[in-house]
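Researcher: Structure prediction, please.
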Amino acid sequence: MNVLLVASECAPFVKTGGLADVVGALPKALESHGIESRIILPLYPALQGLTGKASFELDLGVLHGSPARLVCVEAEGISLILLDAPGLFDRGAGIYLDETGADWSDNAQRFAALCDAAVHVACNGIEGWRPDILHAHDWQAGLAPWYLRQQGSDIPCVLTIHNIAFQGLFPSALMNELDLDPDGFSPDGYEYYGQISYLKAGVVASRRITTVSPTYARELMSPEFGMGFEGLLQARKADLAGILNGIDLEVWDPETDPAISENYTARALKRKTVNRTALEKRFSLSSNPDAPLFCVISRLTEQKGLDLLLDALPTLVGRGGRLALLGSGDGQLEDAFRKAAVAHAGSVGAIIGYDEKLSHLMQAGADAILIPSRFEPCGLTQLYGLRYGTLPVVSRTGGLADTVIDANDAAIKAGCATGFQFAPVTASALSEAIDRSCTLFEDRKRWAAVVRNAMRHPVGWDSSATDYQALFQSLFDSRSEGAE
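Model: Predicted structure follows.
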């Protein structure tokens, strides 16, 4: 089978979050199952250097006001189809946001162009390669399944919802400009409370819908988490599946990681302490071998529950723990953690921003990673934590609930505990989980046993790639039967 992935970002080329990591890792995982995949991706400035490796180019004329062409390249073991549309994507600042932090005013046109280009590849092929299935990721790719349906194509589409909070909403006045059939602007189509929703278009037009963890798939059908899509997803329940994300085990491997101070394994945990010392130095933290060093690597937003951590800091600091935080986002939260670092000098350190290499050191050097999200479709940082023996302290929601086994007495005795869960998602429940982790840390033998459990926990793509292969195969077979 051939599968075309449509996405707005892909690691290691361009990344703002976990979507990029998943899109970058999935093709390699599918390859072992006999699936050849290519990724169609906008040619942002950061990717310009790849065009010198082009194996094929195709002129598309003008797409949504910009001259456009497709450029095929191989990079980092991934087959990319780059949409080179300078008027839409050759600009500074962020891939979604302008210099002021607002959405680009033409995001509707930008990602409609990506979907148009994807449909061209799906219907006509490129460089002698034609996809059997189109796999769209999040709202930015949501119009691709809809455009295919408008054209009467029988190419099966799968839409993966990475985070339903982002729905791609735009004014209805853009229908004609976006080449959307006005008849589709209805509750049964792409209309969402008087606006165009790219995500809804993808949900309605795709044969199957996946999300990134089994628990999140169930949560999306409830008013608490569905964000207005719960009725639609309940109606599509038979077509909805939660397939857990994995991580790239070659990029995230404490035994070989070049970004950390000392490599280590589950059998050589003493070497992990070298990274702990390096992390303390980087964040100007005091050394306390008798209490855990916590870390946070996150966007600073309400979704991530970092405001709860501010309220839980007295418990963390009171137990002798230290906190190293790396993140950016909400300005008030950024200021609050800067002030916390001053107020708790030596116990709290904060670096506002993002640094991929530093994130590896933090996973290697911390004892525990805090993830108090109010909702979390899957989450990857807890998977990195498990891989590096940095015990996740997580809220019991979404993929966090699916990947971390709480270190209660029964789980510890059974030898299966891998971290700490808490519920409800409140500051007091988070404080209690931090307190429990500090207590377990005092028993270094039991703590080490849980760390080894965590490092043995499967976090790669093997199982999930098998699930995707089965899903794609069912669609491939049904299309073949229909052709007969």
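Model: The chain has two domains: 2-246+462-483, 269-456.
Researcher: Thanks, that helps.
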